[in-house]
């Protein structure tokens, strides 16, 4: 599956927005503000709610 910057994705229990697409990994920012990387085959595109594409709320603490 091809990902583009701004795609909404779910990786396991984490939901976020793709911010970088590499040759092997994608980087995404979760809705709680954490940056994560994943293999493309682990990520699933999800429909983004109208008007919220690319917006992620900042967070003060990230969990592993």
Could you describe the 3D structure shown?
0% of the residues lie in helices and 36% in strands. A hairpin with a 4-residue loop joins strand 2 and strand 3 (26-30). Mean pLDDT is 83; it is low at 56-60. The chain is an all-beta fold and 64 residues long. Strands 4-3-2-1-5 form a 5-stranded antiparallel β-sheet, with no helix packed on it. The protein is globular. The chain has a domain at 8-45. It starts with 7 loop residues before the first strand and ends in a 19-residue tail after the last strand. The protein contains no helices and 5 strands.
Essential attributes:
globular
Q: Strand order within the widest sheet? A: 4-3-2-1-5
Measured between the Cα atoms of the first and last residue, the distance is: 26 Å
Low-confidence stretches: 56-60
Strand portion, in percent? 35-45%
Q: Helices and strands, in N-to-C order? A: EEEEE
Radius of gyration, taken over Cα atoms and rounded to an integer in Å? 11 Å
Q: What kind of assembly state do the chains in view correspond to? A: single chain
Count of discrete alpha- or pi-helical segments spanning 4 or more residues = 0
